[in-house]
Amino acid sequence: MNTQIDELKAILQPILDKHDFFLVNLEFVHERGDWYLRVYADKKGGISIDDCAVISEEYGEKLDELDPIEPAYYLEVSSPGAERPLENDDSLSNYEGSYVNVSLYQKQDGDKIFEGTMTEVTDTQITLIIKVKNLKKTIVIQRDKIAKIRLAIEF
Questions:
Q1: 48 vs 13, 15, 42, 66, 153, CA distance in Å?
Q2: What are phi and psi of 93, to 5 degrees?
Q3: Rounded to 5 degrees, what angle do the CA atoms 51, 85, 41 make?
Q4: pLDDT digit string (tens) for 72-89?
Q5: What is the pLDDT of residue 98?
Q6: For a surface tag, which of 1, 5, 9, 66 has the fewest beta carbons within 10 Å of its beta carbon?
Q7: What is the C-alpha to C-alpha distance for residues 42 and 39, in angstroms, rounded to an integer?
């Protein structure tokens, strides 16, 4: 199955690149008797329903032309969600400058959960600007200390 997913991603990537989108996830799953090819894509500033329609149309045409999938399936293209987890290096890099919620395995500076703007991402750490009693503070968190990180909505 991984070979098929890799092939499907390779077909999709030029379409995403053409429109400055990036792939968050692609899955081919069997649910309730039907097959679904799901594409979760995004772009800097967020993806719109019109953007999803562009991907669906262009990818659908390419898949019809190449016919790489044996069973009948439904193609679904969507946003990954407003508060989605950031699960890999690409996700972190693509959302540098975004507001995030970070949960740690152990306390740092007396807390295990931080929310703030992720201003820098390296291989070993992230830098956040957080608010402490209406004052902005910069903190550095080692990536191996992070249990979970997700996009957050700032209020």
A1: 18, 16, 9, 27, 17
A2: -65, -40
A3: 20
A4: 999 999 999 889 898 888
A5: 93
A6: 1
A7: 10
